[in-house]
Amino acid sequence: MMIDESASIGVLVAAFQDDPVSCWLFPEDESRPRAAERLFAPLVARSAADGELVVTGDGAAVAVWVPLSAGESVMGHSDDELPPELLPHARRLVTFAELAAQRHPHDRAHLYLPFLGVEPGRRGSGLGGALLAERLARADRQGLPAYLEASSARSRPLYERHGFHVTGDPITLPDGPEVWPMWREPAQRQGELR
Questions:
Q1: How many Å apart are CA 133 and CA 145, to the nearest integer?
Q2: C-alpha 123, offset from chain centre
Q3: Spatial contact of 18 and 36, defined as CB atoms under 8 Å apart
Q4: Overall average pLDDT of the 183-187 stretch
Q5: Which residue of 71, 112, 167, 171 has the fewest CB atoms within a 10 Å radius of its CB?
Q6: Mean pLDDT of 186-191
Q7: Hey, is 146 helix, strand or coil?
Q8: Helices 5-15 and 32-49 sit at what angle, rounded to 10 degrees?
Q9: Where residue 75 falls among pLDDT bands split at 50, 70, 90?
Q10: Terminus-to-terminus CA distance in the chain, angstroms?
């Protein structure tokens, strides 16, 4: 099935409009959608190219998975030029990237979930959980662990229900919200799959 990357980015922009980290990164409400769109686009494109972008049948939920090798980072190259929409937010973007990179495990190959978004009117309907369950079942069969940063207290319980555990203290953004690094080992037996 061909996935519409632009529509997927639109779902993520809407889903993260009121997210605490998104609000911290892009404090001006009027610039947040365009800046967020530019932030999401490269990872959505990479996930799609890797065959890992997962979207519900109705397009209301999107999971951006990125397979990482041991030692690989998801961050862009240091010589990349930021798009104009992100330049006013460069200091916060760099701060977040540096703090997150310090906690992101690099010693094992794993799946990274940078974004999981559900259209605001469809939150709580099980769409995000269904996308998680689908990809995590395959990760279990592949023996792949998974990592993410939960950007809100609302999302943590969802990830915990799917086997993720908080790894240490939260990342605290300067004058901003906390972000919870979470890791999930693959299930050892089929009966442990969630």
A1: 14
A2: 16
A3: no
A4: 95
A5: 71
A6: 64
A7: strand
A8: 130
A9: low
A10: 25
* Domains detected in the chain: 5-72+90-192 (3.40.630.30)
Pairwise CA distance, residues 103 & 94, whole Å: 15
- Give the SS3 label for residue 66: strand
Does residue 58 have a pLDDT over 70? Answer: yes
DSSP 107: S
Could you tell me the pLDDT band of residue 153, with boundaries at 50, 70 and 90? Answer: confident
Whole-angstrom Cα distance, residue 156 to residue 29? 25
In angstroms, how far is CA 128 from the centroid of its own chain? 12
Q: What is the pLDDT of residue 2?
A: 63
Residue 183 contacts residue 145 (beta carbons within 8 Å): yes
Residue 60's contacts (CB-CB under 8 Å, 6 or more residues apart) are 11, 118, 119, 122, 127
State pTM to two decimals. Answer: 0.90
